[in-house]
Amino acid sequence: MIYAVDLDGTLNKHDEYVEYNEDEYMNAKPRLDIIDKINKLKLAGHTIIIYTARFCMHYDITKKWLDKHNVLYDRIITGKEFANIYVDDRAIRPEEINDEKNIIHDIKKEMV
Asked: What CATH number has the domain bearing residue 50?
C-alpha cells in the first residue's frame, strides 16, 4: 500500500500556514506518536511518501528534519497546493491511524 503523509501539522505540531525560515522548520516539534505509527507502516513494507506545501527550495531542510526525527520514508514531494480544507476520498486524520490491520480493514469496508 502507498501512504501519502503530510508534514506540517501531521508529523510535526505546526498547523497554521506561515512563512517559516529554516531555523523554525528545523525546530518544529515532532509528533512522535504519529511518527511511530508511520514508521511501523514502513517497516511492514508499505511505501511512505511525505508530501508538503513547503517549496522545493526547502527540500534539504525538510529532509534534515525528517532524518533528525528518524522518520522512515521513500520520497518527499514538495509544492502541495495550499488550501484551508482538503477534500479527499482517501484521507484519514493522523489520530485515526491505528495499525496496518485496522487501516486495511477500514479501507476494504469503505470499498464495499
From this structure: 3.40.50.1000
